[in-house]
Specification:
The protein is of the alpha/beta class and 331 residues long. It has ten helices and eight strands. The protein has one domain: TIM Barrel. 38% of the residues lie in helices and 10% in strands.
Length: 331
Amino acid sequence: MDRRTFLKMAAAAPVASAAGGGGRAPLWGNLVHLSYSFWEDHVHPEKEERGYRPFLRFDEKLWRDITEKMAAVGMNAVVLDLGDGVRYRSHPEIAVEGAWTTDKLRAELARLRRLGLEPLPKLNFSAAHDAWLGPYGRMVSTEKYYAVCRDLIAEVIALFDRPRFFHVGMDEEDAGHQRLYHQIVVRQGDLWWHDLDFYVDRVIEGGSRPWMWSDYVWHHPELFFAHMRKQVLQSNWYYGTDFGDGNVRAKAYGDLEAHGFDQVPTGSNWTDPRNFGLTVEHARAHIATARLLGFLQTPWRPTIETHRQTHMAAIDQVGAAIAALRRAGAR
């Protein structure tokens, strides 16, 4: 789709941000990592930052600059990946050195709200990305594991004052993504669905809406559409520039729409700076306004000074998309 056609469509079909056209402003979010403990205690030969570290990797000056710039360009939501970056009262044993206290977290959430940014929590329960759980990451699907996850979900919902959405991750749980781990854990079939339903139920019980990555649908579409509950907000993600029907990752946006799922499409400047703008164009052309709740940017870098340029460029890309829609008279 060329730019002129996109702008005409944008002007003709403004985005509704809540299911059923509830009238809330569309979510323009950014995923920011307090914790970067997604991978087991290995060092990836090409991506050494991915290894687990027993200390917090987080620059507070950069964090403040990121959030202030987000507000300045018109963004309105921060998805904060908490992991082991908080000293939870229920399970302080998983906190890394330098983790925030719950009082500090509450103070930062209040600051975000003053900036006009809605804080939304994320804890990734995928067995491929749960190094943040410490010893409990090696107890997946046991009674102790369920008890710890229940405690953490309840505490985070309380800390965030019952957030609108709660992201539970659940991406890339396969052997390939864990090939360098010391222990590979992959739930399949009924067990994967049982555990997903467990997280979903705990989030709903707490008064929030569960949210997850959608890549399971790429590999198991029949199972996904047979079992996935409509209450679960979907974030399909694709970081390239080929949005043709032959690309299963990009095609998933239309597949989710065809089955009536609410979505927050997710882009990134991980591989190409054009991706976020193209994601917005594609989503607005293929997802009904009533089910398009907004967009999420994901730089996928730790919040440290070394990656300042990447973080700031990611925000600029979202700002450009917002400005383009405003010029076109769309929300």
